Here is the input.
Amino acid sequence: QVQLVESGGGLVQTGGSLRLSCAASGRTFSSYTMGWFRQAPGKEREFVMSISRTGGSTYYANSVKGRFTISRDNAKNTVYLQMNSLKPEDTAVYYCAADRGPNGSTRSIEYDYWGQGTQVTVSS
Here is the structure.
């Protein structure tokens, strides 16, 4: 069992930056691929980025390419999402998730554990 708690969301102006954190409980954090997803009002949850167990591989959605970075610190049981050059269309609830599988899946159904989400609002 893994419990995930996101933090770092908030209100920011267009072009601004935020860093989201996701703290995981348990001793097996390094055995999980970690992902970030987001869900805007009236829309389906969508993949943002993921990172492999060691952090050696990352995957991203085209919509965030060059603007967002994912990283992890296995010693701290934490995964981060650095978001730069934010746009109003990035407004959503952001969720982190843990996947027992070895690869950074883009499909939410592949993930086994989810956090409660943190709101990110980008004003124009």
The longest strand covers residues 92-99.
